[in-house]
Amino acid sequence: MNTQPCVSCGTREGMHPFKGRSLSVNYKQMSRPVHDLAGWECTVCGEIEFDPATDSAERYVDQGDKLLDDCLQLMGSEVQRIRRKLHLTQKTAVKLLSGGGHNAFSRYERGELPPPQPLFTLMRLLDRHPHLLADVQSLSAGDDLKQLLATRHPEHQTTPSR
Ligand SMILES: [Zn+2]
Fold this sequence. Notes:
alpha+beta; 434 Repressor (Amino-terminal Domain); binds zinc ion
């Protein structure tokens, strides 16, 4: 059989040829298959080397780049759609939801940066339950924390006593 020493772990006869294989490219939770790939795979460590006589490596890398691009565009358009649905300006969205730099949202929405996962999860939660925005506004103003602080340290209460 046509085997090679593994380029990664060095096992002799570790790499076995394959062709017509489908492998997936991944970005965050998303993935897509790339078909008809040829190369060698190590039976010991799992290392894969694509066959340079084919376009496998090129197609695999291109599909990975394309998936990244499509995901950034998708997340960006979702961030924008949800922000508008909640009637928030980018500036208000930063203040209420992300706390980052003032142009963070425009970079997320243009697909230049992936939104941080906690922010994206919060926005999708608000997409499903838009009425929770009122709670977000109250929590963001710190109403609950102010009350808690006053309860724990009543001696520092500035309210004049009667
Ligand atoms: Zn190996």
